[in-house]
Write a structure and sequence with these properties.
four-stranded antiparallel sheet; five-stranded antiparallel sheet; SMP-30; 6-blade_b-propeller_TolB-like; calcium; Neuraminidase; Regucalcin; 295 residues; zinc; mainly beta
Length: 295
């Protein structure tokens, strides 16, 4: 059986991102960053419910209690899905009005990690992106304020490694560090993969059950599987130029869902479904469940 790539939701998102699979409801949650939309897609029928947040939202995590925790342009917030009500938690970058949260996800213990960026990118300025850890008690811890575009957060299945990237064109590196799951503390980062060796810059990422890291190659029309030792294992050509966030889902966690960007595509290229949500099957690998945020 070969690989199949199908557009599940053809909604032309500006910046589709933040895909998270809900193993309890068998639904996919994702966002459209600049217009502040949170989507919930029933993948069996393709129907999507949407809530308008009212501010750019970079990523989300499911909560153990109910609803979602969001990382937005105004900090961490709780979204009550039924009512649409937003409750603030903390805004660690209130002093940086040009910044917003971008990519993030929970670690295997449920802590919510998310990173920021200046929007739009200001290459003439020093990098101002920072990764933050939101704990169950709603305390926030900053980690390494040296990035232009915080991206690609993912954790190995056993929680001992943390992956992340900086998508900025002059950097475009993926990094890895040892991770202390008991304390939620990363060690010193090391270069994991230089995406100058492939067509696409690094965007969102996830891991599979084998411990391999899947990277959306934004701008490169490709998706990459990278082994734990940093070796390019598989390249998948895509019908869209700007893939943004892969996430395994489905009853057996063997379908790779992929958000994409409709904004910034190369003029004149044939990609009418850019910005849609795609489903990739036939990969022959499974993902790992995403842990819910306990706070």
């Amino acid at each position: 059986m070969g690989i199949s790539i199908d557009c599940l939701v053809d909604n032309h998102s500006a910046i589709g991102e933040g895909a998270v699979w809900d193993v309890n409801t068998q639904r996919l949650w994702w966002v459209d960053i600049p217009v502040g939309l949170v989507h919930c897609t029933d993948v069996t029928c393709g129907t999507t419910e949407t809530r308008t947040v009212g501010e750019p939202v970079g990523c989300l995590a499911l909560r153990e209690q109910s609803g979602l925790v969001l990382a937005t342009s105004k900090g961490f917030k709780v979204l009550d899905w039924d009512s649409g009500a937003l409750s603030p938690i903390a805004d660690p970058e209130a002093h940086l009005p040009g910044n917003r949260f971008n990519d993030g996800q929970t670690d295997p213990a449920g802590r919510f990690w998310a990173g920021t960026m200046h929007d739009p990118i200001a290459p003439e300025e020093p990098p101002s992106g920072t990764f933050y850890r939101l704990d169950a008690d709603h305390s926030v811890t900053a980690w390494r304020s040296v990035f232009y575009t915080c991206n690609g957060l993912a954790f190995s299945p056993d929680g001992t490694r943390m992956y992340f990237s900086d998508s900025f064109p002059a950097v475009r590196n993926i990094y890895v560090c040892d991770y202390d799951l008991d304390s939620g503390t990363p060690g010193p980062p090391e270069l994991f993969f230089d995406t100058r060796d492939v067509a696409g810059r690094p965007d969102g990422g996830t891991v599979d059950a084998d411990g391999c890291y899947w990277q959306a190659g934004v701008g490169g029309w490709q998706l990459y599987r990278i082994t734990p030792d940093g070796r390019l294992d598989q390249t998948i050509d895509l019908p869209i130029e700007r893939p943004s966030r892969p996430m395994f889902g489905g009853p057996n966690l063997d379908t790779l869902y992929l958000t994409t960007l409709g904004a910034g595509v190369t003029p004149g290229t044939e990609q009418p479904q850019a910005g849609g949500l795609f489903a990739i099957t036939g990969l022959g690998v499974q993902g790992v469940p995403q842990t819910r945020f306990p706070g």
